[in-house]
């Protein structure tokens, strides 16, 4: 592409009015001496003409100046215009700010003027303002009704806040201060100028209220009340007379009824005239009677008298009395005795014909105690359950559910727990439409409660509700909602709630979904999809914490669902017979008799509701069905290929073989081994599957699917890399989850044969196994040994392979032994492991000898028995005598690795001692000093390797807590000797040696300083004791640990002072300067003689 010319660029800039850029281009062209651009020249000329016209009086001679000066003037003019515009804009902004400040100041001045005017009117004569609390005159009524003024509002705000603080309403005071944004309510100075602080709000109230006269008003009220009392007394007298009259008439009527003819007497044969005349009875209806009853109901004694006067003669009347009396009785009963009233309240609710009265009694039942305790809640819930069993479902829904919905939002935790328990109690007696709508909504709200006790109670009630959901179409429509609530409960942050969800809610849901026929197709499939989604959405080798938590939760659920999957498979099998529970299972029977339950299999993780004997009848029945399943699988050769042709024969088993197991395998292949917790969850899930479904299912269904991945082949490098990844991720899960979970007679040969064959495959690189997959093999061995599975047997396998002619096999054996020694018992270590390693350490191949050295170090730190440690020492000494310096380097590297973990005596007496000897020997060799190099290059490199290994061992030694004597007498001199071998170290290594020497010196100096302080303290005590003895005074008290001085002697010419204690042992006192010590001793002796 051709470069544009200056003319085209100039025309383009001028056409778009980029004048400044055009000027700069013109200036650069002029300064560089390039040719003139006509378009730019004409533009400059027009600018000059314009400048000349706009500036009259300028001499014509100035227009003829140089083009450069004219152009600078035009640019300066443009910049000046821009600066003027900026200044104008800045002035306008400052003007707006000043106007706002002026308005604010005017408002403040106005408020201050009002405050000063008020102060001047209240403080006539210049006296301080006082608050007058007399009632205002009549002409001040208008002022009192006027709107509140700003200073009045500020004063009231201050007084109110002061009152709140005095009354300890601190939170209310804080809220009040936050709401009052235009004032500091804690400072009176913020109210207004020239105003004294008024009295407290309480004092104002008391003074103002004391001046109010209620005399006239009290007289009028007293007279009206007296009139009302007189009228009531007259009405009461009339009512009593009426009651007496009515009672007499009632007695007369009863006597007439008893004296009348029998109803059965024939009257048809008599003449009409002879029939007894009908007596007319007119009951007077007195309005005052009804008014009296209404008035007397207000008094408890009168109400009770009326109830006594009208004792009911049937059960219906008794129910009415209960409905009227219980609300008045309950508040007067002690709190810890109110549960005694529950039967009466329940009877009233059951029999009362009036719905409002029933609702009032039900409300009284739920509010019987403000914070009901567990026993009280149990009584109320049990009563409600018994009551709900006697009532129609419509009445339960219309009366119980509204009360429960109100209690869901109650502020007391105990009330919310009560309503949670109530939901489970009434669930079996509700109609499906109410249970699937209102009740589930209540439980969903309670599952999200902030209190863990409420959530726990809600989970229990939810489990009861799910167990009675039924298999109707409407119930099946709630499956997703209930499953979502189940997962919410299982994800609860509190372990107690999660435990209840797993032990009660999950079994109920599994049983219900099995009855609906969706346990496998929906619930099981959704669980596997959740795990797959968590892995695929993360997309990383190391999963995030959220993905790990999701997998842990899901696999925990899967492990607990597996018994129900087995039960579902058996229940749909051709040989299933419905169970008859003749006797409880063994563990439940033992629990009922107060005996300890029999132990379960290790790692089974079963709880009571997940025992197969509960689902299938008993232990014998469960074993029988597992045996029949094994027989069926063996006879029909159950495999994915065979079931595809007859998928409808046994759909439940087909789903397990074609869907469940392949999905588990797919998840296992997707999870990297770095996610240890996820791998462990997979192993637990698959091992539980194998234990529940039996050995035949594991060997003919699960094992072939895993072997398809482990024994696959690759045709190119990309496929080989993918195959290696799949094998590494699947190997541990297959060995631990499938083979080791088989029954005991089958598991042992399966595991040992596979480990032996795998070792040979990795060592010999057979079946596209590679040597770099050795860490996967050792990880599997370590996992098996960690669970104490076949440890001795694997030692025997490695012993058999010890004499294998292939070098790679022996190297693999050494790596396996390095893992095994951490788990083998001392007897096996002494009899098998040590002889095997000694054999390998004398192998003709140096690679094997090198690899075996680190294993000896592992034995030294894992087996503290003295005979074993002595054998390890002898082997290390033997290896150090090998002329091959690479052996010595490997031994030193092993020392460096085990120093921090070794037993102190073994570390100090052997490892550090050997390292110091080797360092001293290397430093004393003259050929390693700073002399002309006379060594061969190979020998120099070998010695340099030994020196580097010694330096690393010294670093590891000084990082441990070792005795100062060892540092002073052994480590520090050895490092100084090692420092002399200057030709064997680089500059950085020599700096490390100097740093180590300085560190040793610092520790030695600190030790000497501490020793001198101790010696000075002992000498001071000695002097005080001698002075006290010279004065015949008792010795000053000393600490219990300090020895008492009985005599002292001075060593001639040695500078040492020996003190003989009361225990008979001499204590030497050392002084660095012998002359000073002798002078001190002479002075002390002279003092003793003078005092004597």
TrEMBL record:
<dbReference type="GO" id="GO:0005802">
    <property type="term" value="C:trans-Golgi network"/>
</dbReference>
<dbReference type="InterPro" id="IPR006594">
    <property type="entry name" value="LisH"/>
</dbReference>
<dbReference type="InterPro" id="IPR021133">
    <property type="entry name" value="HEAT_type_2"/>
</dbReference>
<dbReference type="GO" id="GO:0032367">
    <property type="term" value="P:intracellular cholesterol transport"/>
</dbReference>
<protein>
    <submittedName>
        <fullName>Uncharacterized protein</fullName>
    </submittedName>
</protein>
<feature type="repeat" description="HEAT">
    <location>
        <begin position="833"/>
        <end position="871"/>
    </location>
</feature>
<feature type="coiled-coil region">
    <location>
        <begin position="215"/>
        <end position="256"/>
    </location>
</feature>
<dbReference type="InterPro" id="IPR011989">
    <property type="entry name" value="ARM-like"/>
</dbReference>
<feature type="compositionally biased region" description="Polar residues">
    <location>
        <begin position="1055"/>
        <end position="1076"/>
    </location>
</feature>
<keyword id="KW-0677">Repeat</keyword>
<feature type="region of interest" description="Disordered">
    <location>
        <begin position="1031"/>
        <end position="1092"/>
    </location>
</feature>
<dbReference type="Pfam" id="PF02985">
    <property type="entry name" value="HEAT"/>
</dbReference>
<dbReference type="InterPro" id="IPR016024">
    <property type="entry name" value="ARM-type_fold"/>
</dbReference>
<dbReference type="InterPro" id="IPR040362">
    <property type="entry name" value="RELCH"/>
</dbReference>
<dbReference type="GO" id="GO:0055037">
    <property type="term" value="C:recycling endosome"/>
</dbReference>
<keyword id="KW-0175">Coiled coil</keyword>
<feature type="repeat" description="HEAT">
    <location>
        <begin position="439"/>
        <end position="476"/>
    </location>
</feature>
<dbReference type="InterPro" id="IPR000357">
    <property type="entry name" value="HEAT"/>
</dbReference>
